[in-house]
Amino acid sequence: MCPVDNMWFTHSSLGLLWILQQQLGSGSITSIKCQPVTEQVLPKDYERYDAPLEDGQPSIVQTEMAFLTLKSVDPETMTYETDIFLSHIWREPRLCDVSFSSINRTLEPKFFEELWRPDTYFYNAHSGTVQEILTKNQYSKLWSNKTIFFNARISLKLTCDMVLRNYPHDTQTCAIILKSLSYTDKELKLVWKRMDVSSQIVLPQHDVIKTETKEEQDSYGFGNFTRLTGIIHLKRRTGYFVIHTYIPSFLVVIMSMISFWLPPESAPARVALSVTSLLTLVTQQAKSSIPSISYVMAIDVWMLGCIAFVFATLVEYAFVSFTLQRKRKNTKGYTTKVNPGQSPSGRNQLAFETTKQPELKEIPNIDDRIVVANRIDRVSSFLFPSAFLIYIFGYLAHYLW
Ligand SMILES: *[C@@H]1O[C@H](CO)[C@@H](O)[C@H](O)[C@H]1NC(C)=O
Ligand SMILES: *[C@@H]1O[C@H](CO)[C@@H](O)[C@H](O)[C@H]1NC(C)=O
Ligand SMILES: *[C@@H]1O[C@H](CO)[C@@H](O)[C@H](O)[C@H]1NC(C)=O
Fold it and tell me: Which ligand is nearest to the CA of 141?
């Protein structure tokens, strides 16, 4: 029941004032206005736990979200942080028909607590707070058409499932999901009014490429619930990785290939070059990867490819060195002669025979061996860089186009 008596009292006192004003002819009284008392607005039998149904239709709660900041998109914890303004707009037809014509009142927090409110929550929130500096960043307004507008500034840490197979060329879709806790779609329907991501947001590693909104329904045994999903598409900027990973590792691989132009005899130089390159790449790989991800990412493919190339140059040198070693053995006049009837794995037997039967060289002489070693180096010096280029194009083709 609406407090009609009170209203009558208010109106009649207004009338009295008006009469007084007429009689006294004073202008000062016009400035006294009777503010609509918020208590008058609530009927006595108001149930603040019942959603305001209109003709049995669910209450429509329009929702607006404005993203003020976006930050800390973290693939390790799979979360991101944001500050949003969340507004809900809904009609409350159960309010009394007080003269609403001129009101656009900001409701007292205490009065707002007396009203029915949509009990929305963020489904994928990790943590969140309503900002409280300098006052609690939350207000509500009552509009003249019995519409209530609620607005709050909320800081949220939200989960975002990231698939990082293409890292660092990945595009992430991070969602914000809003649902009602207890009202099914027969009582409350959440609808999108607007979602807005400020164009001034600058993320250190990402660009916001687009946003979209979705209205969906979740079915549970005891009812269906509407769900609002706002999706932000984030594209990672690769500048950081080009400068800190791709270019250095590319140069290290090229550096290791310089070894093909060094003489085969200078073992310390060539081994040192390959081993330093290998160590550099292995440390860099550990640094560039995301430790908590256990599947293979694009960056891992790249780094492992580079490591494989450097390792191959080391193996190539081992091979070159081996041909030279055989050469040295031959200079001492020894040769291997394996008895065809015996297993070649009989090492002792072999050693015995080689020491026992010094023979004249059958295998080409020193100069020929050096020529062979040089030829291997020349071929490698074309083969390796070409293979590396093909690898780079393959990598780019797979992950960028
Ligand atoms: C109340 O506020 C709304 C929204 O700000 C505005 O459109 C409307 O004109 C205002 N009404 C009055 C009576 O001031
Ligand atoms: C109520 O009034 C506000 C502001 O004047 C307006 O934005 C809103 O759409 C109105 N709602 C309805 C249900 O008429
Ligand atoms: C939920 O929605 C589905 C279809 O969208 C419908 O078949 C089902 O009856 C609904 N459940 C309830 C409890 O309303």
Answer: 1
Q: Go through the chain and tell me how many residues it has.
A: 401
Number of other residues whose CB lies within 10 A of the CB of residue 172: 21
Residues 60 and 189: their CA atoms lie apart, in Å, by: 5
Give the pLDDT of residue 108: 77
Query: 87 CB less than 6 Å from ligand 1?
Result: no
Beta bridge partners of 230: 176, 213
Give 317's contacts (C-beta < 8 A, 6+ positions apart): 259, 267, 270, 271, 274
| Lowest-pLDDT range of 191-195, 224-228, 285-289 | 285-289
Query: Which ligand 1 atom minimizes the distance to the CA of 149?
Result: 4
DSSP 187: T
For ligand 2, the distance from its centroid to the CA atom of residue 109, given in whole angstroms, is 21
Q: pLDDT grade, residue 283 (50/70/90)?
A: very high
Phi, psi for 156 (deg, rounded to 5): -130, 145
**Residue 87 Cβ < 6 Å to ligand 2:** no
Query: Of 197, 280, 261, 185, nearest to 224 (Cα)?
Result: 185
Kindly list the domain boundaries of the chain, sorted by start residue. Answer: 34-237, 240-400
Return d(Cα 231, Cα 258) in angstroms, integer: 49
Residue (of 227, 95, 72, 54) closest to 157 by Cα position = 72
Task: Among 91, 147, 191, 194, name the best residue to mutate to test ligand 2's pocket (greatest count of ligand atoms within 8 A of Cβ).
Answer: 147
Contact 150, 113 (CB under 8 A): no
Report pLDDT for 54. 86
CATH hierarchy code of domain 240-400: 1.20.58.390
For residue 63, pLDDT over 90 is answered with yes
CATH architecture classification, 34-237? Distorted Sandwich (2.70)
Mean pLDDT across the stretch 81-105? 82
CA distance 23 to 248: 92
- The rounded Å distance from CA 146 to ligand 2 centre is 8
Neighbours of 228 (CB within 10 A): 22
Angle of helix 247-257 relative to helix 298-331, nearest 10 degrees?
10
Q: How far is the CA of 103 from the centre of ligand 1 (A)?
A: 8
